[in-house]
Fold each of these.
Amino acid sequence: MNDLSDILSIIKLSCKKISNIIQNSNPLNLSKLSDEYNLSGDNAKKLDLMANVILTSDLSNCKHIKTIGSEEEPELINTDFNTAPYMVCFDPLDGSSNIDVNITTGTIFAVYKYGVDNNIVNGNNIVMAGYCLYGGSTQLIVATDVVNIYQLDTDFNLIIENWTIPNKGKFYSINESNKHIWLDTRNNKFINNLITQKYSARWVGSLVADGHRTLIKGGFFSYPSNDNNIDGKIRLLYEAYPFAYIFKVAGGFSLHEKENISLLDVTYPINCHQKTPIILSSKYEFDLFTHFKN
């Protein structure tokens, strides 16, 4: 097996463990607030911490991984393999506010390859990214040079090869309760245009759920900056970079609203918990959005 196959095997095993806990536990108990807090300022749920321990422990033993980054850890973690070529970053449980109501949650991950100067420039250092959905079924979406979709039975079985995002969708996904405080005025113009085209709104409130729907059905997902969150709410290393990579491989697009560049081209952050506005889209909706002026 090659390096990435080894890492993917470990991630699959970790996701199986997390899925098993979710499937066989009381969601009301799993969602109880712990006494610990993560760096984003959100109350860390019991399952967040369990998922973090599983992924961190499993990946720490991989000889190919030099550094581990988790949304639940204050700093990047150095493994015992200081000459290894990869960093793995993850959000162990995205959408944890949905745990108690039994709505889709997920694990998001990205594998970054260190450059010749032993550094990471931006999201283009990613060589593999994906996410695991814990919903009606457990599915694992993995992007390398193509996007493949696996479904968990006893093991993760490949069900779709070389997935590509539709050119155009019928849904947009954005939290319209913030529409009066969005900092980028293109959002309002764009959404109003989509409504005239008979688009429907869909909003779960977890990136894995809303991002996955957009990847499968096409359309538009955004969490813009606003007066209360001027840097957005999505974490660059653990969420935005990975999804931007997945969408690019699948034929979709990402955008940083302030810099008007792909999220993959946003400079690697000094603070490992840096947040960012995020747009993920099919081609039609991306072209339409970028047509408007702020």
Note: Residues 171-291 form a domain with the D-Maltodextrin-Binding Protein; domain 2 fold (CATH 3.40.190.80).
Amino acid sequence: MAAGLATLKALNRNGVYEELDKGAGRLFEAIRSAANAAGVPVTINRVGSMGSLFFTRNPVTDFESAKASDVGRFRRFYQSMLSKGIYLAPSAFEAWFIATCHSEEIVQETIEAVTSTLSSL
């Protein structure tokens, strides 16, 4: 119970959701730019601090359209990110989350790893 209350107090801080949204926006826009530069088709769905990356040109709106994405490419992407010390959810169908513990430095390190990985796919 105490941990839950501490979490609610931390989230009640002024600007916390704006900070989360800003970090996620920066990360996912950098992913989109890196993918475009590398010629890798991606669809990114994002709401606030949560986003999903799919290797497809088509919109992803449900499980059927998610399954049509290139999950083999996601596996290679995941393995490359892991080798760079970036721990993502291991499924192509899971969301990414930006949390208050993700500093600007961590977001930047992730962007650099994504950029390097996408250029090699």
Note: Residues 14-120 form a domain with the Aspartate Aminotransferase, domain 1 fold (CATH 3.90.1150.10).
